[in-house]
Design a protein that fits this description.
alpha+beta; 3 helices; 134 residues; 2 strands
Length: 134
């Protein structure tokens, strides 16, 4: 006659059910992460504490509000498409370099193509001689 230890069988069954249920409901999620060099994204406002004179309306580059807005639009178009080949909603996180300050990041995040993404901004002032933040 075969004896069964029903307590051990029930404990094993419960353990197996717990393991199976916890792995069945684990949701794996893919996110896209990107990086982009904004190539001298300056606003048009002269900051006396920074070397940004070239990127003002009267500076060498004749950096006007229209040119600034156009650059924001072009950057937002590119960023809005990044990662969409892997994840339909696009990037979850993006790193940017060659930006003047947090103002330009806020303008970029508030642009029509990126506004709905609700990007949060983390910004650090950098020591670059051109006043470009990393």
């Amino acid at each position: 006659m075969i004896k069964f230890d029903f307590k051990k069988i029930i404990l094993a069954a419960i353990t197996l059910l717990v393991i199976m249920s916890s792995t069945v409901f684990v949701k794996k999620e893919t996110i896209a992460i990107g990086f982009w060099n904004c190539e001298n994204l300056y606003d048009t406002i002269n900051d006396p504490l920074k070397e940004d004179d070239d990127f003002t309306p009267t500076g060498v580059n004749k950096w006007s509000s229209e040119r600034y807005k156009k650059k924001i639009d072009h950057l937002s178009e590119v960023i809005s498409q990044m990662g969409t080949e892997s994840v339909p909603e696009g990037l979850a996180v993006i790193g940017l370099c060659e930006i003047e300050n947090s103002t330009v990041l806020n303008d970029l995040a508030a642009s029509l193509k990126l506004k709905k993404r609700s990007f949060n901004i983390i910004h650090f002032d950098g020591p670059d001689a051109r006043s470009i933040d990393p």
